Amino acid sequence: MSVDAGERGERGEREVPPIPRMPFRRYVQQFAMLMALGLIIIITSTLSPNFFTTANILNVARQIALTAILGAGMTVIIISGGIDLSVGGVLALGSAVIANTLIATGNIWLAVLAGIATGALVGLGNGIIIAKLKIQPFIVTLAAMTITRGVVLIYTNAVPISLLKYPDFAFFGQGYVGPIPFPIILMVFSYLLTFLLMRKTKFGRYVFAIGGNETATRIAGVPVDRYKILIYVFSGALVGLTAVMFTSRLLSGSPTIGVGFELTAITMVILGGTSFVGGQGTVWGTLVGAAILGVLANAMNLLNVSAFFQDLSTGVVILIAVIIDKLLRQERV
């Protein structure tokens, strides 16, 4: 018996199936989304000569990075069969905590840690309630969204907290490493970390197993509740990191940022081919979904499309993604 098997036997855990391979139709969906991204780029570059300028490309990449990290955490949650509607409220709360911590201590790194810890703590609370009390994630995180929004408004008295006296803090959202905006580096790091966790560790195997069949995974001896909690803590920490970037970008702790970001994150995930019912998905697919939303928004701005039509197009994209997901699941039945 191998050491790994022996250790598993001592803990009373049975063999957990390996991470399932992505079904062919999921690959087709992701390939289709890549084609859609390419088509949007071609059409936009044809209609607007400003699209392929260096400044615009870097701006688009930076804007994508500011929200794509939310999608990485949401991917893990949705693969596990859950959902998180609280990310926008947690983002605003994290921003306020970051700003007040920086003002109180003058320590940039302590403020960064406070923001990440805020997201992780809210994720911990969500995870405990979902796992231990067996309440649906939709209900728990919907309540958390409302609570965090209320707390941050009380905490800040609904007034933004200026950080103009701390220009060094702007590096996280506005700085560059060579020619590359620092938010892009943070995005790449977050996606690599999520990929390694999901594909190379026991944590990732259990996330897929829980999303595929929670009952069977529990029978196999996996501590499902523990891993559900860890899933929400991990996603919450990424929301906290996003709060750091937004607060740095604005040089302000804003109590109103993040409205609708939970919808944006979910859209990225579904566009990327992750099944809304769990058990299947890839973090790199989510990055493609984030790119589609970012390039589409930039294209509409360059073409002076009304904000009302931008909302309409986002809604259509979401509807198409959900329909595709539904059709693909029906094909597997």
List key phrases describing it.
333 residues, mainly alpha, globular
Which helices and strands appear, and what pairs or packs with what?
Layout: H1 3-11, H2 24-47, H3 54-79, H4 87-105, H5 108-133, H6 137-156, E1 161-162, H7 171-174, E2 176-177, E3 180-181, H8 182-200, H9 202-212, H10 214-219, H11 224-250, E4 252-253, H12 261-271, H13 283-302, H14 307-332
Helix pairs in contact: 2-13, 3-8, 3-9, 3-11, 3-12, 3-13, 4-5, 4-6, 4-11, 5-6, 5-11, 8-9, 9-11, 12-13
Give an overview of the whole structure.
The N terminus is likely disordered. α3 packs parallel to α8 and α3 runs antiparallel to α11. The protein is mostly helical and 333 residues long. It has 14 helices and four strands. The strands form two sheets. Strands 1-4 form a two-stranded antiparallel sheet. A two-stranded antiparallel ribbon has the order 2-3. It starts with a helix and ends with a helix. It is 74% helix and 2% strand. The chain is globular, with a radius of gyration of 20 Å.
